[in-house]
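Below is our example:

___
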Amino acid sequence: MADPAAPTASGQYFEAEPAAAAAPRTIAVNIAGMRLSFSTDSGVFSPDRLDAGTRLLLLEAPPLGADDRSVLDLGCGWGPIACFTGLRFPASEVLAVDVNQRALRLTAANAEANGTDNVTVAHPDEVSPTRRFDRILCNPPIRVGKAALREMLAAWLDRLTAGGRAHLVVHRHLGSDSLARWLADRGHEATRLVSRSGYRLLEVGPRGP
């Protein structure tokens, strides 16, 4: 996930084991008529609040349809996307993945605390390469670097089902427009759905032949 205005602790939130000393806290998130409570910590993305990019994604991404049974929260952080989606669409199975072990522990705890029984968490290496997703939701970790980011997105976007869609939120100052061009060059249909406060919400289809 990425947000130029979001606070970050020392170290990088995309490290497997954050160097930042643990500083657990609890925050409340009010969104779309829901009031949820989350445990957060240092060493994960935006530990003090729901960042603006993720809020835009949750509010503006098209709702899941009846055929959207398998959902991926790519780079789950402390779990707002997974938990909100799981609660709003209880018929779907939501998989939350992250390389950050602290983030995975937080998401698992927050899913249980908020009663989202349809959310599971896993390290990316634990996910079967044959598993496919009807919807991918992601606030990409832009600061991991362009090469690593594109490698990550390529791997997961190729797991979209034939009718699947990904929704990515990226700030224009962090390369949303160049990312959209790269996606198109790679054979994806990439459409800008919303542009607000510098953020672009992109809808990405499966890779073409």
Notes: The longest strand covers residues 160-171. Residues 137 and 167 are 5 Å apart (CA to CA).
